[in-house]
Amino acid sequence: MRNIRATYTIALLNLNNYILTDARKNLIQILEVYRENYDEFASYLQYFLDDGHSFPSLIRLYME
Questions:
Q1: What percent of the chain has pLDDT over 90?
Q2: Is 31 exposed, middle or buried (0-12, 13-18, 19+ CB in 10 A)?
Q3: CA nearest 38: which of 25, 46, 23, 13?
Q4: What is the per-residue pLDDT for 1?
Q5: The pLDDT of residue 44
Q6: Are 62 and 31 in contact (CB under 8 A)?
């Protein structure tokens, strides 16, 4: 049942369109660079969140 709802939500919100997938991919690349190069990684992530950056759930995932 959970998979059906997830699939429906993805389709309804068009979350797999090229623009969104490319934007998420770019954000992940940026977050990886920050993770590898900065000791204060969590502070940078908080800055992204405080700045109202897109994909806050993805950023929070990196904070874990």
A1: 33
A2: buried
A3: 46
A4: 66
A5: 81
A6: yes
In terms of C-beta density within 10 A (0-12 exposed, 13-18 middle, 19 or more buried), how is residue 57 classed? Answer: exposed
Q: Kindly report the length of the chain.
A: 64
Q: What is the DSSP letter of 56?
A: H
Q: Considering only CA atoms, which of 6, 3, 61 is closest in space to residue 32? A: 61
Residue-averaged pLDDT of the chain: 87
The distance from CA 58 to its chain's CA centroid, rounded to whole angstroms, is 3
**H or E stretch at 58:** helix 56-63
User: Per-residue confidence at 29, pLDDT binned at 50, 70, 90?
Assistant: very high
Handedness of CA 51, 57, 62, 7 (dihedral sign): negative
